[in-house]
Amino acid sequence: MEYDRVRRTLWVILILNVIVAVAKAVFGLMAGSMSMVADALHSSFDSASNIIGLAATGIAARPPDRDHPYGHAKFETFGTLLVGGMLLLTAYWVISEGVVRLTTGAVPHITALTVGVMVATTVINIFVALYERRVGEELRSSFLIADSEHTKSDVFVSLSVLLGFAVVYLGYPLADPLIALAIGALIGRMGLSIIREAGMVLTDAATVQCEENVREIVARIRGVLGSHEFRCRGAPGEMMADIHITVDPGMTVEEAHGIAEEVEAAITEGVPGMKEVVVHIEPGERDGREKI
Fold first, then answer.
1. Which of 201, 108, 102 lies closest to 146, judged by CA?
2. What is the pTM for the complete model shown?
3. Is 243 helix (H, G, I), strand (E, B) or coil?
4. Are 108 and 36 in contact (CB under 8 A)?
5. 238-277 burial, b if ≥16 CB within 10 A, otherwise e?
6. Cα separation of 271 and 227, whole Å?
7. Which whole-number Å values give the CA distances from 76 to 32, 237, 243, in the listed order?
8. Strands 239-247, 274-283: pairing kind
9. Residue 275: which H helix or E strand, with range?
10. Which secondary structure element, helix H or strand E, spans residue 20, and what is its range?
11. Mutual orientation of helices 253-270 and 211-219 as an angle, nearest 10°?
């Protein structure tokens, strides 16, 4: 993975997210809008996730060493896990504040400037989400893709705040804290989803289903009688796998090794995000049938 480009992308997005969060927080406090302040806090965690991403990808880019012979790629996933936990804490705070606002009955002061700030920051977030998603898919970066989903949810949250402004303007002030509660629930759901996906990678769950593709790739290689026990782990873009293949038992070690290298190269090239494949050689039957 091109970690340098991932980090450059995160720096650009961090600057934009800070601008968005500060604008929402300042004008939300001025207007006394709980939903806008909650949205600002949500946006601030976009910035926090960018900072964690910069630190995590910096470590993930390090080459394998004695203590980490398989590399440091999972540090990126660990950073994603931290973001998920922070989002759960944010959801708790937003929901608590929403409940308090319901009991006090405070009404936000909505102006054309407040609405303008929300519209402008929403447009910025749409650009950030599309840009980050495109780069994430191009580089197969699980962190950028997950973070783009985070930013996309911020867009929907901002739209819900604007809807709340409209309802409050029509004479229904309870809409503001109720929308804040909905925002808190959305942030909590997002945090749980991020934790679940990161947990799957860290526990070596199969995050990409590519068995059928691998079977077709191996079947096309001359000299392979059969294959079995394919296993794959790691995040999309940083996957490792191993597979058992059977060959003619009359082959020399050199010939069998050449086939194993061909299988490894074919799977690495044919499966997006596959970084390393270990091929185990087993003798098949002399009549060409795979050994069971």
1. 201
2. 0.66
3. strand
4. yes
5. bbbbebebbbbeebeeeebeebbebbbebbbeebebbbeb
6. 16
7. 38, 11, 26
8. parallel
9. strand 274-283
10. helix 3-31
11. 140
**Residue 42 class from Cβ within 10 Å (0-12 exposed, 13-18 middle, 19+ buried)?**
buried
The single-letter code of the amino acid at 56 is A
- The 10 Å Cβ neighbour count of residue 9 is 24
Token pair of 135, please?
A: 């780069």
| Residue 71 backbone class (left: φ over 0; alpha: ψ -120 to 50; beta: rest) | left
The values of phi and psi at residue 224, to 5°, are -90, 120
Instruction: Say whether 211-283 and 3-202 share the same fold.
Output: no
- Asked if CATH classification 3.30.930.10 holds for the domain at 3-202, the reply, yes or no, is no
CATH topology of domain 211-283: Alpha-Beta Plaits (3.30.70)
Residue boundaries of the structural domains of the chain: 3-202, 211-283
- What's the chain's length in residues? 292
Structure confidence by residue, pLDDT tens digits, 29-44: 777 766 677 667 767 7
SS3 label, residue 132: helix
The model's pLDDT over 72-101, given as tens digits with 9 standing for 90+, comes to 878 888 887 887 887 788 788 778 877 877
Q: Evaluate if residue 124 carries a pLDDT over 60.
A: yes
CA distances from 285 to 59, 230, 262, 282 (A): 47, 20, 21, 10
Place of tokens 């691998």: 214
